[in-house]
């Protein structure tokens, strides 16, 4: 899934520019490189932007694995280690369960290599929505934009 105007995965200046790829066992892999623009304390990533990166990684996982339109209802993060500017988080995410419209997923981010130390963990509840969610609450032409970006599997 990819939408070029998305703050997480799009091409916007100042965005996170994340990409996600499906791996084995329905695990989805994403990377987030922390730049100076993502700074909170001097030299360290801002926690809110780390949460954003996990929202993106988990949202992409739910979308790609389940192929059901959904939005984040709840996102919980554990910041386990400081994440320095210049480092890359290797994020692995998975779907944990489905209960009706409720889609549960989680992720962990390792510092600088795929087997580096865990720096951030996150769990999320996504809620499945009708496609009208995006046209009613967002842009009237949202579906056209999303289809153009090949984000929806019709
Ligand atoms: C097509 C591709 C699109 C790709 C989009 C990628 C997005 C990237 C990720 C995002 O950042 S999404 C943006 C941030 N999230 C939002 O803007 C969501 C805003 N919230 C809403 O629109 C509604 O609150 C929501 C759709 C989540 C739920 O409203 P509904 O009226 O549709 O459902 P309802 O309130 O009946 O809840 C359905 C179930 O989910 C549960 N639920 C909803 N929100 C919850 C919550 N926050 N915590 C715990 N449970 C929650 C709720 O209790 C209920 O459980 P039960 O079925 O067991 O009764």
TrEMBL record:
Designated name of the protein: Acyl-coenzyme A thioesterase THEM4
Among InterPro entries, the record links this protein to:
HotDog_dom_sf (IPR029069), THEM4/THEM5_acyl-CoA_thioest (IPR052365), Thioestr_dom (IPR006683)
Q: Name one GO cellular component term.
A: membrane
Q: Keywords for this entry?
A: Apoptosis, Cell membrane, Cell projection, Cytoplasm, Fatty acid metabolism, Hydrolase, Lipid metabolism, Membrane, Transit peptide
User: What is this enzyme's catalytic activity, as reactions?
Assistant: decanoyl-CoA + H2O = decanoate + CoA + H(+); (9Z)-octadecenoyl-CoA + H2O = (9Z)-octadecenoate + CoA + H(+); hexadecanoyl-CoA + H2O = hexadecanoate + CoA + H(+); (5Z,8Z,11Z,14Z)-eicosatetraenoyl-CoA + H2O = (5Z,8Z,11Z,14Z)-eicosatetraenoate + CoA + H(+)
Which top-rank group of organisms is this from?
A: Bacteria
Q: Which Pfam families match?
A: 4HBT
- The protein's Enzyme Commission number: 3.1.2.2
Report the family membership: Belongs to the THEM4/THEM5 thioesterase family.
Species name: Amycolatopsis pithecellobii
- What residue stretches are annotated with the Thioesterase domain? 43-111
